[in-house]
Amino acid sequence: MPHExxxxxSLEEVQAKAAxxxxxxxxxxxxxxxxxxLTAGKVTFPNRLGIAPMEGADSAPEGAPSDYTVRRYxxxxxxxxxxxxxxxxxxxxxxxxxxxxxxxxxxTLDEFKKMTAAVKxxxxxxxxxxxxLIMQANHSGRYSNPGNKPAxxxxxxxxxxxxxxxxxxxxxxxxxxxxxxxEKFGEAAQLAKEAGFDAIDIKSCHGYxxxxxxxxxxxxxxxxxxxxxxxxxxxxxxxxxxVYEDDSFMVTARIGIYDGxxxxxxxxxxxESGTNPDLTEPIRLVRDLHNELGLSMVDLTxxxxxxxxxxxxxxxxxxxxxxEHPFVGLARMIHGIGEGCAGDDRLGLRPELSARLRRPVxxxxxxxxxxxxxxxxxxGLC
Length: 382
Ligand SMILES: Cc1cc2nc3c(=O)[nH]c(=O)nc-3n(C[C@H](O)[C@H](O)[C@H](O)COP(=O)(O)O)c2cc1C
Prior knowledge:
382 residues, alpha/beta, 8 strands, 10% strand, binds flavin mononucleotide
């Protein structure tokens, strides 16, 4: 199924093309369920619409939200989604993706407080409820670019990714550095709570530092090799953040379950699966996050937007041409994420509810605005 540009004018055209390609893209005839409440852990969302995180690169130089940042999020709140999953916010200066990426520190805290207050107030005024605000705590890792100068901090040498962005052995972060980051995620949770966020996401997706560790099969030391080692930073970061969890503040995670590269260069594949997903480890991880660490909500995603963009989203314009039709990537995302959270039956979580809500028709909702790949424990809007 070769790649082609996509421009469809109606649902019928999309369905006809999917049928021609033999690709399964499920649609809902009735989406009223999206207007009904959903409970995850101790939180009940008034509807099932959420805004996916999207970096705006419009912070003030020291990392505080600018007027543009506040305006974006106020507008999102007015839109009426119950969840706003904020963009990647750096937890350390050296891990910023640009000199205009948001950075949450004691110095920028007051500006973040003003932003969350304004966003909640806008939601209440427009819709009668305050949206649930999730801070996405990130370290850009290989894509660190503080001061707009590339300064990669990598988990291991990756010949494919380094074709796009140079790195050398001196860029490999030490175990001591990673150990120090665990506590930084705890500090970020404390700051996020003080800033007025309702939750913190310990981000592990899209090729950033924690996501790269997921495929650090050949890294020596405490953060590479075994499954436990590769997820040591993620799990310990979550544990450090959980110290601040209570009835009004949740810890969650956005997890990349497949990168689009064959073993040993990507997560969500096995030595035998080539570039085809093998979700054995991602499912194990999601189960651990729920059973071992007590997360009641996760957000699952795929791909590396810098390098395997077509895995992250339908893609027909950019620095390369994928060797598959965009619908193939879309189906991989929809069905892969369904499989990634299919662990709930095996975990014995309200199977009658999850079976109903896990129907594919509910997995993707909305177009360019409110979103979609929402994997919510335990009732899986995935
Ligand atoms: C400009 C841009 C910025 C993004 N920034 C983030 C981000 O900060 N954090 C994140 O987890 N995902 C980020 N994403 C990924 C989106 O959340 C989403 O997963 C992806 O775009 C696929 O959804 P779509 O098909 O609706 O575009 C970004 C995407 C785009 C296009």
